[in-house]
Amino acid sequence: MTNVTTMSGFLLMGFSDIRELQILHALLFLVIYLLALAGNLIIIIITTLDQHLQSPMYYFLKHLSILDLSFISVTVPQSIDNSLMDNGYISHGQCIVQVFFFTALAWGEVVILTAMSYDRYAAICFPLHYEVIMDPSKCKWAVIAVWLSGSISGILYTTTTFSITFCKVKIIHQFFCNIPQLLKLSCSNDYLGAIGVAAFIAVMAFICFTSSVLSYIHIFSTVLRIPSAEGRSKAFSTCLPHLFVFSFFLSTGMFEFLKPTSDSPTVFDLMISIFYTVMPPALNPIIYSLRNEAIKGAFRKLLLGGEFTRKKIFFSH
């Protein structure tokens, strides 16, 4: 084990010091990671190749899968390696990279989920004007905004976090470079810049979530007026999982950042961190494809070796 008092990096405490539990944790994380990898790759492939999956909904879903795949890859492989090697050491540079990508991709998820809620709002509340409202160029600019705003938030958060002086023992009671744990290592008020950035991002995330909730209020009021029970069921089955994913991801993440940090985290603290770092990327492919006949049909075609035509229906120019 690296000497904690002289190391230049940080020590991730992980889940347990017991070797058997470390191996179990590594195996569980490996299974979840492989499932997330497979699920998100399948969605990326079929939404790229299938001509019937070229509407804005699937365009945004593809980028959500890219974000999910990247997001889970930021923390989980490192945690698996640390558990297998029985060494929680992470270098200063690795920690900086992890914080940047974690923040950038987390914010990207918030923005893409907001865009997806607006897409459903336009599709259900204004079906006759849908293709005008969700013009291909607007969708592409929305995705550019997702990646650009994520990069900016990542740069701001990383810069302010690592501008502080770490004067305490560099032990992080998590399985990744957790920002609240990093801020706790400061011995002065130089962490206030990071707190300010965190507050700004939290406010913006709340605005995004509020706009999504308002979109769904309009959606549900419109859906309830649909005379067909089948139509109502289809609309609810599309929108409710999305609202659940957004609420679950944002609430657990906000709880983690707002609750006081502890020198001896409980199992509950570690579970909360898993809920917003590991579970959403693994569950999103299941939630978004389980009741979607178009995706299931494209997946069957992929399994049976069927050919996808490359003709684009919506994004044709």
UniProtKB/TrEMBL annotation:
Residue ranges crossing the lipid bilayer per the database entry: 23-46, 58-76, 96-118, 139-157, 191-217, 238-258, 270-290
Localization per record: Cell membrane
MF annotations from Gene Ontology: G protein-coupled receptor activity; olfactory receptor activity
Membrane topology, from the record: Multi-pass membrane protein
Keywords from the UniProt entry: Cell membrane, G-protein coupled receptor, Membrane, Olfaction, Receptor, Sensory transduction, Transducer, Transmembrane, Transmembrane helix
Pfam families: 7tm_4
GO cellular component, one term: plasma membrane
Domain of life according to the entry: Eukaryota
CDD domains, per the entry: 7tmA_OR14-like
Primary location group: membrane
Domain named G-protein coupled receptors family 1 profile: residues: 39-288
Family: Belongs to the G-protein coupled receptor 1 family.
Primary role: Odorant receptor.
Name of the protein this chain belongs to: Olfactory receptor
